[in-house]
Every structure is written in structure tokens, then in C-alpha cells.
Fold this protein.
Amino acid sequence: MRLFVAIAPPAEVLDELDNLAAPLRAARSDLRWTSRAAWHVTLAFLGEVEERAVDQLIPRLERAAHRHEAISLAFSGAGAFPAPDRANVLWSGISGDRRGLAGLAQSVAAGAGRAGAAPPDKGRRFQPHLTLARCRLPADVSGIVTALEDFHGRFWHASDIHLVRSQLNGASRPAPGTSPRYTTIQSWPLRNVAADRH
């Protein structure tokens, strides 16, 4: 099954980002805008994982979650992969405790590797983001990136991680140009420091 590990921003934060993106979607119908229901921040994309590895993965992700505190984050700015003038992916950036987020992502990837589900992009620098749109062909989204460069959303706390399965019409790998369906397999809370002190 095709899996990834992510954090899910709260509804009010997604409302803010959705309102910001609405006029951009209307102006750029050439982009494949991601649906709000699919918005998340990926900690580790695991790709195809065998069922037997999932049994090993679940306790390792739980341990990774319990080693890290809740993280204060905000959406801010925008960017594109590989570059704004030839984008395949348009994204909203993240500010706040990026060091804590990177540490959590590293723990998740390490636990997945020990479970036999190492991320296929292991070793690539972690770039936290939320995907706003994908481009069928490389597109110039420089105007959108510039329009969003001063955006700073409200802060929110990432307090859980989620193991998510990506499917399309019963298939494990989505066809080009189609949107996958995401199903949360299991979730784990990050460590609550306040509760630990009592």
C-alpha cells in the first residue's frame, strides 16, 4: 500500500489559506489545484509499503511521536518546485518551529527505515510545505509566489501525526492527472509537556 506520514492543520487555519487561494484558483485554471480535503503537511512519504512492514511501522511511529513535543507553526509565503518560473508544484511555506518540525520528520523517517519502509527520497533535505497546486506541464507561477510572499497566517499547534494511505478508485497508485483519496490508518499524539509536568 502507498503510505505517507503527515500532520493535519486545524480547520480554522485551512479556512484562512483557502480564502487566500480562492482568487488565485479563479485566475489560474491551467493549474491542478489540490482540494482542501487533501491538504496536509508531509513529514515522510513512504511510497509502496508491504503489509508486513506496516506491523513494524506502527509502533515505531508511535514512539517517534511520543519523543517530540507539540510544535507551533504557521503558513507563510509561497514557493514552487523546482522553481517558480518552471513549476511542477506550487506550495505554501511554513514558519514557526521549523527545527522542531525537521526533528520530528527525521524521527519519523528513521523509524520507518527501521521498520523496512524507508522513504524513497531518504537523504533529501526536508522542505516543509503544503501543496496548493500541481502543474500538468512546467508552468510559470512567479506571479502567485510574489503575491503570497508577505502572507503570514495564524499560528497553530501540530499535536498529532497521522499514517495515511493514498488510493485512487481502489488502486494503490493514482493515474496521472487524477486526485488520490487519503485514508488515515492511525494517529498518535505528540508529547504533551504540560501534562508531563503534573
